[in-house]
Write a structure and sequence with these properties.
It is built from nine helices and eight strands. With 250 residues, the protein is of the alpha/beta class.
Amino acid sequence: MSFLWQHLATSPCIYFEMKKKSHINVRKSMMASANDARYGQKESADQNFDYMFKILIIGNSSVGKTSFLFRYADDSFTPAFVSTVGIDFKVKTIYRNDKRIKLQIWDTAGQERYRTITTAYYRGAMGFILMYDITNEDSFNAVQDWSTQIKTYSWDNAQVQLVGNKCDMEDERVVASQRGRQLSEQLGFEFFEASAKDNINVKQAFERLVDIICERMTENPELADPSTTGNRQGPQLSEQPQRSHKDCAC
C-alpha cells in the first residue's frame, strides 16, 4: 500500500466520516445548512472521476475564506457571510489535462478555540490555500504560524498557495503586494492576490494549486497511479459530515 493511499484512506474527510463525538455544534433548524447538505449529497453521489483532491482553506478568522470558497464553487458572493464554526465543505468537479478531478474543498474556522478540530482535517490534504487579508496586518503576521501547522499536521507532499485576499479594498491596504510575494518565496509557496468580492484570481488560485498537485503526481509515478488517488468509480463515501453554522460577522 503506497504512502499516499495510506493518507487518503485514513482521512476523515475523504470518506466523509465524522465521529458522533465531534465538538462541532450544528443547528438542525437552519434551512440553509440543510439545502447545502442536499447539494453535497447530490455531488458526492457522482463517483465518476479520475482523481479526488482534498483541499483546505486556512487562515485567520475574517480573512474571507468562506466567501472565497463560495465564489469558486458557486460563483456567488454576499457580504452577509459570518464566521465558520468548526469546519464546512463544498465539492466541485473540474477538468485538467484531460482528467476529471473532484475537489473536496474544506473551509476551516480561523478562531483559536476551533484549532484542535480543524487541524484534525489536515491529514490527507493534498493542497492548502493559506489566506490573509491585505487590510489586516495581524492576519499577515499569522501566516508563518499557519505554515508551521501545515508542516506539523499534514504530509510532506502537500502543496500550498499563499493568497492575499480583498485586493479590491486598495484604499484600506496595509500589506503591500511585495511583502506577500517575499514571504511566499521564503516559505516556498506560490502567491496570488485575489478578491472574492470582485472575482479576481479566485479560479486562477484554485486551478494553479490543482495544476501543481498534478505536476507532482507526474513527477512521481506512484502518485500518478489512479489506484492510489481514486479511479473511474472512486472510493465510496460512506457518510455525509455534519455541517457547521455561522454565528458572527466574517
